[in-house]
Write a structure and sequence with these properties.
By secondary structure, the protein is an alpha/beta fold. It has two domains: 167 residues, Rossmann fold, CATH 3.40.50; 60 residues. It is 24% helix and 36% strand. It contains five helices and eleven strands; from the N terminus they run H-E-H-E-H-E-E-H-E-E-E-E-E-H-E-E. The strands form two sheets. The chain has a seven-stranded mixed sheet, sandwiched between helices. Strands 6-7-8-9 form a four-stranded antiparallel sheet, with no helix packed on it. A hairpin with a 4-residue loop joins strand 7 and strand 8. It is globular. The protein starts with a helix and ends with a strand.
Length: 234
């Protein structure tokens, strides 16, 4: 992705001001650059380890930032109703990580609950995941890790069209001399057709303000490789 989305979210922060809420902030890939615009931001994530990494990154920033990192589930956000967020960000497919309908609707209703009328909800969807070719055990990356270890990423991709799921099975292999360590995990995405996602946002209490097809703000069309939805809380 080449961090193409970061500038988009920075521009949104400058446009709407703060405080901003980011869903699934992870290691701070988006949170820290957005906070560097001078905008107050709250990032939430379920992973203690990712948040710990983000906090370590935050301690290395020389200019003080108004950035709070909170461990929370986006389906049950721990904030008051009608909190003063001007913008809620759902970057790069975070809503597609919710793999069933109940989880998705719980997250949308949770965002609606903590938003006040006029709050903008920005949703970034990865449009090409359902079209990903299936393959088994393809080497996706080779490189050198800490201390000279050799790192290899082996990936397999599965499609489950009936459940609208795309599953990436990943295997990180680390070799250091005669030692070999393997870490395995899977990443799954559920991708709804765009009209279905729009209708779910509307049923949760939002009105669609704009559909964008890239991070430069051009309008969406059927060939767009990015689906960006800007919705406003009613």
């Amino acid at each position: 992705m080449g961090r193409r989305d970061v500038v988009f979210w920075q521009d949104m922060a400058r446009r709407y001001g703060g405080p901003i809420l980011e869903l699934g902030c992870g290691t701070g890939r988006v949170s820290l650059p957005v906070a560097r615009t001078g905008t107050a931001l709250v990032g939430v994530d379920r992973s203690d380890r990712m948040l710990a990494y983000a906090r370590r990154r935050l301690t290395r920033v020389r200019v003080p930032l108004s950035l709070s990192l909170v461990r929370a589930d986006i389906r049950q956000l721990p904030f008051k109703a009608r909190s003063p967020f001007t913008l809620v960000m759902a970057p790069y497919g975070i809503l597609q990580s919710l793999l069933d309908e109940d989880d998705l609707m719980a997250a949308l209703r949770s965002v609606a609950r903590v938003s006040r009328p006029g709050t903008i909800f920005g949703v970034d969807l990865v449009s090409d995941v359902p079209a990903w070719d299936e393959y088994r055990r393809r080497v996706r990356m080779r490189g050198t890790g800490a201390g000279g270890s050799q790192i290899t990423l082996v990936e397999s991709v599965r499609q489950e069209p009936q459940r609208k799921l795309t599953i990436f099975d990943q295997e990180y292999i680390e070799r250091r001399g005669s030692r070999r360590r393997v870490r395995r995990f899977s990443l799954a995405f559920r991708t709804l057709p765009l009209p279905d996602m729009l209708s779910r946002l509307e049923s949760a209490g939002f009105v669609i303000e704009a559909l964008l097809g890239d991070y430069d703000g051009r309008p969406w069309d059927i060939r767009a490789d990015v689906w960006l939805i800007l919705a406003r809380k009613i």
